[in-house]
Design a protein that fits this description.
The protein is α+β, with helices and mostly antiparallel strands. The protein contains 15 helices and 50 strands. Helix 1 (about 5-20) runs antiparallel to helix 2 (about 25-35).
């Protein structure tokens, strides 16, 4: 071992000692691979001196010895890079990117000189060194977006490969799903191998999902990278070598996409274009959800539903975990604990509750017992196999169990039919848990690597694959089978599926949550970066178990968690068997009152939240957003603003949530707002922003248990509704429009029936709002699109930051008798206005 190899080995050892729970296996692999990169390897002999190439209308292919490199433009801002080391490219197939996307192309212009080959599109320029095959990708202004590290573009050791890229000192990395740790991935390394990580902690890795996508931020510009490989993989962002980031896998193809923004929202939109958009969920899924492992008898469920309604805690969903089943067998109901299941469903429906039941993917191995899912699965040959062709059996909750082979479309179709009875009875949603897949009493807590899957999927060659290739997509294909099955059973109703494990593209089939967190202040803090990175990775409809799944939270912890969950897409209170109660009313009336107030605020904000979710389903922009997504170039050197802002994040386009950096020690802390004017959400007061005036004093927050600091950006128009107890209730009263005048003043509202697919046939309403501050006052415009008839008959307009007496009102250019009211102490103007179907221009004219 030479001196450089010794240094790298020492760095890997130091990393392992410093972070013993952080997935040290892949760190050592990365260090070892880094060292081997400089040494000769029998799997990667020195290449011949000559490089041959072939230009294509959309790119270039180079051959140097056994190495084949093909770079193609499938869009002007999207490149696909494929690399083979045995004289040919790997199979052109994907579980994440559809064939019609992979086959797209744009014309390129070839650019060659003595030492390099390449091409350019209307957005990007690619240069490849003839001798080393090193690749440089830049925009047309010369900004380097990605550059191979010195050496080969990738190294191979048997079937294992690794790709190395230069890592600029001012570049930052985000994504990879719900990995634990800070928001910025720089300085960290991760392994992608879906794992049942019960009681995961801050440095546990891997956990439940494998999403091999990240985006970079450098000097206000963003680039996305998707490695389309399902095998066990790892990503290192400068943990081993400070000036290099790398990614690779233990098998499968070198096949990755590089796509440019430069705006990070465009990068996320492109990722959604590649892997798919989340479907619009039913409105009730955005309401408050109450769960437990387990409400194990029907009377307990009735008590929970009754208490929620009695205490007037707005809520929509109750979950049933595995104890409602017969012997923990999926698709069964215990006749002992739930003897009147159909009656219970009817009672919950009358009280406006939806029921979501768990359906784990393991099917009890129960021959000759009359267990229909097993019998029909065996008859259809739907279960995964051992090497000898026998059916694989592993132990999970029902005991010995068999596992559907979701790589077969016939098996997915069969799985979907298993929901028929539950759907007919009125169960509203389904929860796919344990689908990493988790298997008990095995060395690695999952299926053996040798388990066989029979791929029968468009775009793939029909073949048998070992579990190491399929493991990371198994959970995604499970949720896909559930989603598709529900669509077939009720073609006009939106499914709701919640999954624990998934892969890139899994957002097309299911919402998700962060898994088995704990009732601790650390896990409350971890919730924010985990949800933000999930949103940046396609899963913008996600949540974390409120109060923590494992353990019993104290009063203040549960209250603060409930407050924070108001501003996350999925708001589910959930706990483990053996943990203390975590319902809203525990710890007494004072704590319950605070928690209720925040849940009520969530329901008032449902028009805003539903609009943000609908935006996600069109654009890929998540509901919970890091600050850099809205303010990509807000700092002087254009580094991500989040690196300075503690725990702050955006809830949709307009609302900023600013919890204390350390929830358990809420000392006074400085509020660091993005540039521009801001308003206190709770009081409407305008905030003096130190970001705009360096001579002004910073805003210091003195934390109070009952107040989660929330702010609204200038130029926002936020729609809100009267309080309801569930989404099944029709709000009574006007639609409130909160107007916060300022730059680029706009807002929107999306509305449909909240249940069916009628919106896809044009049955929806979209209101576009805008406002302008003029020398005479303020003009508010309301422009409707669509034919859906909403529940409101009038608007209640609130204009914050108003100075002066009550103005005169002009409606659509004509003086009106409408009377505006001014609260001078709050600088608030209000007006009630009949809601018509035509565009309205409402002008507030100050007295001259």
């Amino acid at each position: 071992m030479n001196s450089k190899q010794s240094v790298k080995a020492a760095l890997a050892l130091l990393a392992a000692l410093a972070f013993p729970a952080a997935g040290t296996a892949q760190v050592a692999d990365a260090a070892d691979a880094s060292a081997r990169r400089e040494a000769s390897s029998p799997e990667h002999p020195p290449a011949p001196d000559s490089t041959t190439f072939k230009s294509f209308p959309n790119g270039i292919e180079l051959h140097r010895g056994p190495t084949v490199l093909r770079v193609s433009a499938i869009r002007d801002d999207v490149l696909r890079v494929r690399l083979g080391f045995k004289g040919q490219l790997p199979e052109d197939a994907s579980w994440s990117v559809a064939p019609e996307i992979r086959q797209q192309s744009v014309s390129t212009i070839a650019e060659t000189n003595g030492s390099s080959l390449g091409f350019r599109t209307q957005a990007l320029r690619v240069r490849i060194d003839r001798a080393s095959l090193n690749m440089n990708i830049a925009d047309l202004d010369g900004n380097v977006l990605q550059e191979d590290a010195p050496g080969w573009p990738a190294e191979f050791h048997g079937d294992t490969f690794r790709v190395y890229k230069k890592m600029p000192a001012d570049e930052h990395y985000f994504g990879l799903g719900d990995k634990v740790g800070p928001l910025d991935r720089r300085g960290q390394s991760f392994r992608l191998w879906n794992t049942d990580s019960f009681r995961f902690q801050e440095y546990t890795d891997p956990i439940y999902k494998s999403i091999p996508f990240f985006l970079t931020m450098r000097a206000g510009r963003s680039t996305g990278v998707l490695m389309d490989n399902t095998w066990s993989s790892s990503f290192d962002f400068g943990r081993v070598e400070q000036d290099i980031y790398s990614f690779g896998a233990q098998g499968g193809p070198v096949d990755y996409y590089v796509f440019y923004g430069p705006d990070p929202k465009r990068v996320l939109g492109t990722y959604a274009w590649l892997t798919g958009l989340a479907p619009l969920p039913p409105l009730w899924a955005l309401g408050f959800q109450q769960s437990r492992y387990s409400y194990d008898n029907e009377n307990w469920v009735r008590e929970i539903a009754s208490r929620l309604r009695k205490d007037r805690i707005p809520s929509d969903v109750i979950y049933l975990d595995i104890d409602f089943q017969n012997k923990n067998r999926p698709f069964t109901v215990s006749s002992e604990r739930f003897p009147h299941f159909d009656q219970l469903l009817a009672e919950l429906k009358r009280e406006n509750f939806k029921l979501v039941t768990i359906t784990d993917l393991h099917i009890a191995s129960a021959p000759n017992s009359g267990y229909a899912p097993y019998d029909s699965g065996i008859a259809g040959d739907h279960f995964v196999k051992n090497l000898d062709g026998s059916t694989y059996v592993g132990t999970v909750w029902p005991g010995p169990s068999v596992f559907p082979d979701f790589t077969r479309h016939e098996t997915r179709d069969w799985w979907g039919t298993l929901y028929k009875d539950f759907v007919a009875k009125g169960v509203s949603g389904f929860w796919n848990d344990m689908n990493e897949p988790s298997v008990f009493q095995t060395r690695n807590l999952t299926m053996p690597d040798t388990v066989q899957h029979r791929i029968d999927e468009p775009g793939f060659q029909p073949r048998t694959a070992s579990h190491v290739e399929i493991h990371n997509v198994f959970g995604m294909e499970n949720s896909r089978a559930t989603y598709d099955g529900l669509v077939k059973l009720n073609p006009n109703l939106r499914p709701f599926v919640l999954t624990r494990a998934s892969f890139a593209g899994g957002q097309k089939y299911a919402a998700t949550w962060t898994g088995d967190n704990t009732s601790s202040w650390d896990h409350l803090r971890l919730t924010i970066p985990m949800l933000l990175n999930l949103g940046l990775s396609g899963f913008g409809i996600s949540g974390a178990d409120v109060g923590g799944f494992i353990g019993t939270p104290g009063a203040e912890l549960l209250t603060r968690w409930t407050e924070l969950a108001t501003f996350q897409p999925i708001d589910r209170n959930h706990t483990n068997k053996g943990s203390g109660n975590k319902e809203v009313w525990v710890h007494g009336p004072e704590q319950e009152a605070i928690r209720r107030r925040y849940i009520e605020e969530r329901y008032r904000l449902l028009p805003y939240l539903y609009t943000a979710v609908e935006e996600l389903t069109r654009t890929g922009i998540p509901v919970d957003r890091p600050l850099f997504l809205e303010f990509p170039a807000a700092t002087a050197d254009k580094h991500p603003l989040d690196l300075d802002a503690g725990a702050e994040f955006m809830f949709g386009h307009a609302i900023l949530v600013a919890p204390p950096p350390f929830f358990e020690q809420p000392d006074n802390y400085e509020l660091k707002l993005p540039p521009g004017a801001w308003y206190d959400y709770w009081t409407g007061a305008k905030i003096q922003n130190a970001a705009d005036d360096p001579n002004s004093k910073p805003v210091v927050i003195a934390p109070k248990l009952e107040v989660l600091p929330v702010y609204v950006r200038e130029g926002a128009i936020v729609p809100m509704q009267p309080l309801v107890q569930s989404t099944e209730e029709t709000p009574q009263g006007p639609l409130t429009l909160r107007v916060y005048p300022g730059k680029d003043c706009h807002g929107s509202l999306y509305m449909d029936d909240g249940k069916t697919l009628a919106y896809q046939r044009g049955d929806f309403l979209r209101l576009e709002f805008s406002c302008d501050v003029t020398p005479q006052g303020l003009v508010l415009r309301i422009e409707p699109h669509g034919d859906f008839h909403p529940w409101w008959k009038e608007f209640h307009v609130e204009v914050y930051g108003w100075d002066g007496p009550a103005p005169s009102v002009v409606l659509n250019g004509t003086p009106s008798q409408l009377r505006a009211v001014v609260d001078a102490s709050r600088h608030l103007l209000t007006l009630d206005l009949a809601a018509g179907t035509a565009a309205q221009a409402l002008e507030f004219r100050k007295a001259q």
